[in-house]
Amino acid sequence: MGIFLYPISTHAEGGYVGDEFNLSRPSVSVAYPYRVLEIQNVFWDYDHSYFSCSQTSGGLHVRITKYFESSKTITCEVRYKWGTSDGSRYWTSTERKLYSIYCNEVNIDASDLTLKVGQTQRINYYASPKTPDISFISNNSSVASVNNYGEVTAYQVGTATITLKQNMGPDATCTVNVTEPVPPTSISLPSTQSVDVYSSITLRATLQPTDANPTLSWSSENSSIARVDQNGLVTGVSPGKTKITATTDNGLSASCEMTVTDVDRTPKTFDVADEFSEKTVYVGEFWKLEYTVTPSYANYNLLWTSSDESVAKVTDGGYVQALKQGKARITGTIDGFSLTDYCDVIVKGIPNIFTVWLNDGQQMDIKLDKNIKVLLEGDKFIVKSDEVNVEYDASDVKMYTLENDGTVETGIKTVRPDGRQGTMSFDGNTIRLIGFTPHSVLRIYALGGQTEGVYRIDADGNLTLGIDDLNKGIHIIKTESITYKIIKK
């Protein structure tokens, strides 16, 4: 059967770096009485340096990852079989479609900006919200500074260049010319305003002329009633009246009589944080309950109680300590109000730490509660307790340590290929190696591969190392044929 090539179709698409869009694969059709029998293959070709793509059922999902000039082409070829309805006669054809992809250059709206001393204006720029790593830099911050949002503030007469930088494309610049401010000829504020205690309101001064230097100094006659910041934001502190004053750089001033009104400080809600509604801990653990009371300025006295102080006790400040195995409910109550919430505490016994060291260097830490048994049954190494049953192939286990009721037990000897036996055990802050090849070398490596120490086994095949000499972290202890991994916490 022959191969027929159909004409190439084209499509344009694009955006800024970071933008994403979908390309639809070309549709295929044939003239009656023939029909498309099978889509055999869909192949997309694109430049991985500039696009991150994933194939979808209907086409290709594209993300522009790097800026490029002019345009790039993404190609789709659809290979399909077509022929008679019964398939007795068929042909293979390829439909090819070219997608011309463009990339917009991130740019600043205006190349020049004029500000007066004290003015602030945001630079408008063209980009996608998904365009990564856009930043602004001023080459003369003493004249004009710029923040990460493109807001430029003029400080003194002069010129500064603001550069918009992006990792994936060319920079754009804007020249900022800062001129002398126009001195104000008058200033006015609202004659009166009111604000609640704990609330805030912003006073706005009116200057004449309208382009006058906007720099103002704000002050409160009595900051114990209302305080004001240098943006004119007034916050009520206590009930009463005071005067808020705004002063221009050239000495003009205006005042507003601010009345601060009291608020209802009755607590409305009390809630223990969700993560503390039920808490499972071990004997000896100590933590603080977190909660919220609304409104935030409410006056209240919070009382804490425990349903069983022998299991868990709580202080007036909401600190809880687990004392013995059992269950207790810690209840908080707002004194004088029907507002309560609680934390259910489940206390487990002191955990036993069982550590299994495997021949491949892995360390397995298992927390067990009680009744721990270590068994060697045939070719199986088994750890049993009331809670778990862990099983290993004995050939995979190098050794184990068990901290049980304050004592440390170590077991499992490592058998070397030459028949010698060597064991590594822990005794307090000491690592003891016994039964290794006399005068052989032991090395300690950091996880990154750096050598931390080189030691020699003594004439009896033994070596003692101090754990205090090791930094916190993971260390690899390597003898001539055995490797251990230890973690110093």
TrEMBL record:
| SUPFAM superfamilies xref list | Invasin/intimin cell-adhesion fragments
* Residue ranges of every copy of the BIG2 domain listed in the record: 102-176, 183-257, 266-344
Its name, as the record gives it, is Ig-like domain (Group 2)
- Positions in coiled-coil regions: none
Organism the protein comes from? Prevotella communis
User: Superkingdom of the source?
Assistant: Bacteria
InterPro entries, A to Z: Big_2, Invasin/intimin_cell_adhesion, NUP210-like
Transmembrane intervals: none
